[in-house]
Structure formats: structure tokens, C-alpha cells
Design goal:
Blueprint: H1 5-19, E1 30-34, E2 40-41, E3 48-49, E4 60-64, E5 69-72, E6 82-84, E7 88-91, E8 96-98, E9 108-111, E10 118-121, E11 126-134, E12 141-144, E13 153-162, E14 165-169, E15 173-177, E16 181-183, E17 188-193, E18 201-209, E19 212-213, E20 216-217, E21 227-238, E22 241-242, E23 254-260, E24 264-271, E25 274-278, E26 284-287, E27 294-296, E28 298-302, E29 323-325, E30 333-338, E31 343-345, E32 352-353, E33 375-380, E34 384-387, E35 389-393, E36 399-403, E37 410-414, E38 421-430, E39 453-455, E40 463-468, E41 473-475, E42 481-483, E43 500-506, E44 511-513, E45 515-518, H2 540-549, H3 571-580, H4 598-608
Parallel strand pairs: 1-4, 2-5, 4-6, 5-7, 6-9, 7-10, 8-11, 9-11, 10-12, 11-13, 12-14, 13-15, 13-16, 14-17, 15-18, 16-18, 17-19, 17-20, 18-21, 19-22, 25-35, 36-45
Antiparallel strand pairs: 1-3, 21-24, 23-24, 25-26, 26-32, 27-31, 28-30, 28-33, 29-30, 33-34, 36-37, 37-42, 38-40, 38-41, 38-43, 39-40, 43-44
């Protein structure tokens, strides 16, 4: 039986009145809190407190905190704002969250204030707002796009202020601001590159750039010349620094670079000029080691400590057309610029030699790098000022763990041309567990019968340690090689240098972090006789190094072309080169530049006997040779 219409209308009016008790439009902002742990649907009244999906027409702002997790998969009523902290909001495919101003609300999305907060817009999802502000703890993320799914991840705002990690996956993200976009000092723009194309953040106004770009690659291997626009705007101010921690290691002579024009910031994988510095001789040259020719029209080399006090053979001095030394060049800064045109540097063309510009001085202590404060910039006619690569050759002033990535062999040597030291312990670590502890692999000093050396009981795939229970082992510069057999597992694929670390303890006290490099296992007393340019062979280039430095002093003795280690480049060094001509050397282009003084070898011979000048045979626990 039907009720009379007046009675039905009265009942409906009464129901509406009851539902609006406590939810009348207010001239002040009202906070509505997501009230379930989730993941739970945004568009369900009962998930909110008060129990209504927040609406801008009632000046209501959605609040997500206390670890709440909400998702949007349809089109709910528009809130007047969103405030998030210690919460997660995911806009899924088909979800459309439109945040608009009310009479007392701003229409802003504020994601993260003090605690890690996560806002995700998946492909097929849309977020619109007046303003988007991200912050909170360093682990906070704004995640746009995904490698699977379909459609476009869309963000449309009037302004954006991004202060933590903005992760943009692939080419299927549309991010647009009708006003400005600001990347704060703590911001990380994390593009996940999946191919030749990538999504761009677009701002009709100004893009203010600070923070870093941390590129990541998924299903795509970068090749030289690749470039991806990251930000476009009506104008750009500032710049983004590069963070390479998630990208594949660049090939030698190449790097990831962010270049900026008046309207575009672009990520490039490109070849760069290399400033090659010989620690032994102080020789400096500008080289191109990979890829296409590189043009430059200016360069600057800086050393805040004033190490540029050597002999500068500038391009102007060499008569290279239109190059001019800057008037303010000094021991801390050397600059030249080309007044017309540019100069091209090709791979294999010998580069631009600038003389023995680096003044070789004994470092303040063991472990202090030679020329550590050198930096190099150059001007590209098309890309502006770029940071070049500074690459050192010659021996390190430090203890070095060398790993042969082809065989898994490893050895420890003090490469310093300046200091003799002694050690009483070492640890080699592999974050991924690539160390082998079995007798057939790790040829420990204890196994070799070296007095008082003892393997740590907790040595494992991630960490091998030995310590000397009494006394110490002398490690003269360029002398003793502690051969450790083949303790590195190469069966599981290529090795990564960043996977390994090396520490040692000095007899004088203190634990230090040494250097790790890949290359051929070094030879005690130097295995690079005649290899004066340290490129792994003895050839005509080494003769030219000897010829060009004939009659000059070698500091320290054995540096550069001082093959007979007498402190002077003379006829005896030519004899060393002639004897070894055509040979491959142990250096393999790595860092061994000089041999130790004879007196140093004598000291080690008396202290360590068989471990000096010969790589020791492997000795079993019972003392028998294996």
C-alpha cells in the first residue's frame, strides 16, 4: 500500500535532517579523519570520522595519519584539501581525486610533514589539486606511474612544492602545473628510465631547481648519447645535481649529467673530457677516451691547496690558435679560453698536453691522496659548462686491495711512494657475499705459515678477517705483496667494485679504510719496468715519456720514466725500457707508477724474509707446500 505523497516527503526530509546533524556548512575548515587502518576505500562514509566522505562544499579537509592506508578507485566527492603524515594514499586505475578549494579551504594536498608519507598515482589514476606539497621524513615518496598496467598517471595542479623523493616511472606520466614547480634543497627527482622516452614535469610558470636527480633504469641499458628531458617550464632557475647511486656504472670517460637551458632540464648519458693526472710526474693532459669528438672553448683546473705550481705548458704557449690564458691564473686556478671557435678532442688523438702542472709534494700523511682537491671544468659550445672527469694514474698513497675480476685472485700492497708502514690485521668485506673461505680459495696468511697470523673464526662469505697475535708485518711502499689466493667468487657473474670494502689496522694503532681496485695482481718491487706511461705495456709511448723528461729529476725516485730508480731520468732508464720493450706489465694501466727505494726492500727482506720479492707458495696447516 502506498503512503500519501506528503507523508513520504516529510519522512525523507526528516532523514536528511538527521544525516546533516553536525555536518552543516561552516565558515571554518573542518577536519575529517580516515578512521580505519586499511588498505580501505576512500569513498566509504564509515571509513571517516565524522562518518562522511569529506566534501569541499562543507569546507572539509581529509586527514590521513597514524599509519592509515587509503585507496581511491572511483570518483568520490571532492574534498577541500588533503593532509597526510605517516600515511599512504594510492590512486588506482579508474580513480579520480579532485581536490578543490572551499570557502575556508585551500584545495591543497600536503603529503608528509614530519614522518614518512607515501602518495601514489598509478597508471589510469588522476590527481587534481590547487597545490601539491610533499615533505616529511627522507623516506617519503610521491610515486607516479608504473612499469605494468595501462593508461596514464595524471597529476594536474596550479603549483607544486616537492621536497622529498618524486619517483616517476616510464613515459606514461602526465604532470602539469599551470603555475610554478619548486624542487627544494632536500628533494630527489628519481626518474625510472624504461626506454628512449620518459615523462616530463611541465610547468607553465617557473621551475625552481635544487636537490638531486637520482636516475634508475628498468629494462633499458643506457648508451652514449641517450638524453631524456626531465623538466620543462616557462623559465628555469637553479640546477639539479646528479646522484649516480642507482644507475649502472658508466664506462670509462662517460657519466650521467644534468644539463639546463632557459626552459629545459635534461638527463644525459654522455662522454666527457678527462683530465689525466700522473701522480708520479705531475703531468696533466685533457683527453677524450670514449665516443665521439668533444669540442671545448674554455677550461679551468682548480686546486684550493695550491698544487698547480708545476710547469704549465698552456695551449697559448703551444701556439694553438686563439687560446688565451686568463690573467687570474695561479697555483690554485688555471684557466684558458678560446677567443674564437672551439677545439675538438678526439679519441686516440693524444689529447691536449698541459705540461707537468701538478706540483708533486709529499702528502701530510699516509693515506692522504695526492692531488685530491683537483677539479676540472670545461665549456662546451652547445651544452655550456660541464664538470669533466679527473682521472689519476700512478701509485696510491695508501694500502690497496687489488682484485683480479677474471680469476678472483686478491692481494694487498702498500702502494705509497712516500711512506713505509706495518700492519697487524685486515678485513675484506663483500655486501653480496662473494667471498670464499675454503682452503682451495682463500690462501690466508695463517695458511701460508706467516708467523703469528690467525684467521678470525667468524670469517664467512660476507667478511674475511685475519689478525696478527704478536708483532706486525712490514709493508714498505711498493714492496711486499700479501697474496691471498683467490678468495673472490666469480662464478655468479661479473663483480661490482662497490660491493667490496677493505680495512686494515696499522701497527701504530687505529683501523683504516683502504682502497679497492680491479686489475692484475701486483708484483713486489714493481712489475712495470719500462712501462713509463703505466698503460700495461712497454711500447713507443713509454720511449716518448723517457725522451721528453730526459735529464729531469724523479720525485720520488722511481716515478715517471725513472726505470732504474736513481732519482734522475737518464740513459739507464732507456736501457730498462729497451730490455722490456714489447712486454705486458703487471700494472695493466692501473696505479703502480714507481718501485720502492733499494733501502726499503732491504728492510723488508730482513724483516719478512720469504714474503718479500716472491709471492709465497701456499702452505697447508701441517706446513707442507700445496
Amino acid at each position: 500500500m502506498f503512503r500519501p505523497l506528503p507523508r513520504m516527503l516529510a519522512a525523507l526530509a526528516a532523514a536528511i535532517a538527521l544525516s546533516l546533524i553536525g555536518r552543516q556548512a561552516d565558515a571554518q575548515q573542518q577536519l575529517v579523519t580516515f578512521n580505519v587502518a586499511g588498505p580501505a576505500d576512500w569513498n566509504v562514509d564509515g571509513n571517516w570520522n565524522p562518518p562522511f566522505v569529506p566534501a569541499a562544499t562543507l569546507n572539509e579537509v581529509a586527514v590521513l595519519n597514524s599509519g592509515r592506508v587509503a585507496f581511491v578507485h572511483d570518483t568520490p566527492v571532492s574534498p577541500g584539501g588533503v593532509i597526510m603524515d605517516n600515511a599512504t594514499l594510492e590512486i588506482r586505475s579508474g580513480g579520480n581525486l579532485n581536490v578543490v578549494p572551499g570557502t575556508a579551504t585551500t584545495g591543497n594536498v600536503v603529503a608528509g610533514q614530519s614522518v614518512a608519507t607515501h602518495l601514489t598515482v598509478k597508471r589510469g589514476g588522476t590527481l587534481s589539486a590547487q597545490g601539491l606539497i610533499t615533505g616529511g621524513a627522507a623516506a617519503s615518496t610521491l610515486l607516479l606511474g608504473e612499469t605494468t598496467g595501462s593508461g596514464v598517471s595524471t597529476v594536474s595542479v596550479a603549483s607544486a612544492d616537492l621536497n622529498q623523493r618524486t619517483r616517476i616511472v616510464g613515459p606514461n606520466v602526465s604532470f602539469s602545473s599551470s603555475g610554478n614547480v619548486t624542487f627544494g634543497a632536500t628533494s630527489v627527482l628519481n626518474p625510472v628510465i624504461t626506454g628512449a622516452a620518459h615523462s616530463v614535469i611541465n610547468a607553465a610558470g617557473t621551475a625552481f631547481l635544487d636537490g638531486v636527480v637520482r636516475p634508475e633504469f628498468s629494462g633499458h641499458t643506457p648508451v652514449l648519447g641517450n638524453a631524456w628531458n626531465l623538466v620543462t617550464a616557462g623559465s628555469i632557475q637553479g640546477r639539479l645535481e646528479i646522484d649516480r647511486s642507482l644507475a649502472p656504472a658508466p664506462v670509462r670517460g662517460a657519466d650521467y649529467v644534468v644539463t639546463t637551458t632557459a626552459t629545459t632540464a635534461t638527463l644525459r648519458y654522455m662522454n666527457l673530457l678527462v683530465l689525466a693526472v700522473d701522480r708520479g710526474t705531475g703531468a696533466v693532459s685533457i683527453q677524450n677516451v670514449v665516443g665521439s669528438p668533444i669540442a671545448l672553448d674554455a677550461y679551468t683546473i682548480t686546486s684550493p691547496s695550491g698544487r698547480l705550481a708545476g710547469t704549465w705548458n698552456s695551449l697559448q704557449d703551444q701556439g694553438v690558435a686563439n687560446w688565451d690564458e686568463a690573467d687570474n691564473s695561479s697555483a690554485t686556478r688555471r684557466t684558458e679560453f678560446k677567443t674564437a671557435g672551439s677545439t675538438s678532442v678526439s679519441v686516440g688523438g693524444g689529447g691536449l698536453n698541459l705540461g707537468n702542472l701538478l706540483s708533486i709534494q709529499t702528502p701530510s700523511g699516509f693515506g692522504v691522496p695526492v692531488g685530491a682537491d683537483l677539479s676540472f671544468q670545461y665549456s662546451s659550445p652547445t651544452l655550456g659548462t660541464l664538470d669533466g672527469i679527473v682521472e689519476f694514474t700512478g701509485r696510491e698513497n695508501d694500502m690497496v686491495l687489488t682484485i683480479n675480476p677474471a680469476t678472483g685472485e686478491a692481494a694487498i700492497q702498500n702502494e705509497s711512494p712516500f711512506f713505509d708502514v706495518a700492519i697487524d690485521g685486515y678485513t675484506i668485506a663483500s655486501a653480496s657475499g662473494k667471498l670464499l673461505t675454503g682452503d682451495a680459495a682463500w690462501n690466508s696468511l695463517q695458511d701460508q705459515g706467516l708467523p703469528a697470523w690467525d684467521q678470525a673464526d667468524n670469517s664467512n662469505a660476507n667478511r674475511i678477517t685475519e689478525f696478527k697475535t704478536a708483532g706486525s708485518t712490514a709493508m714498505p711502499g711498493g714492496g711486499t705483496v700479501l697474496d691471498l689466493g683467490a678468495p673472490v667468487n666469480i662464478a655468479s657473474g661479473p663483480l661490482s667494485l662497490s660491493d667490496f670494502s677493505f680495512q686494515f689496522s696499522l701497527s701504530t694503532g687505529g683501523t683504516r679504510t683502504g682502497l679497492v681496485k680491479f686489475g692484475a695482481i701486483p708484483t713486489p718491487g714493481g712489475g712495470d719496468a719500462g712501462d713509463y706511461d703505466d698503460d700495461g705495456d712497454v711500447d713507443g709511448a713509454d720511449f716518448l715519456r723517457w725522451q721528453r723528461t730526459l735529464g729531469s729529476a724523479a720525485s720520488p725516485p722511481g716515478a715517471g720514466a725513472d726505470g732504474n730508480n736513481n732519482g734522475t731520468i737518464d740513459a739507464g732508464d732507456l736501457a730498462v725500457w729497451r730490455t722490456n720493450f714489447g712486454a705486458a706489465t703487471a700494472a695493466g694501466g692501473a696505479a703502480i707508477e714507481a718501485v720502492p727505494e733499494p733501502s726499503a726492500l732491504a728492510v723488508v727482506a730482513s724483516g719478512l724474509m720469504a714474503v718479500v720479492a716472491l709471492r709465497p707458495r701456499r702452505v697447508g696447516a701441517a706446513g707442507g707446500a700445496r
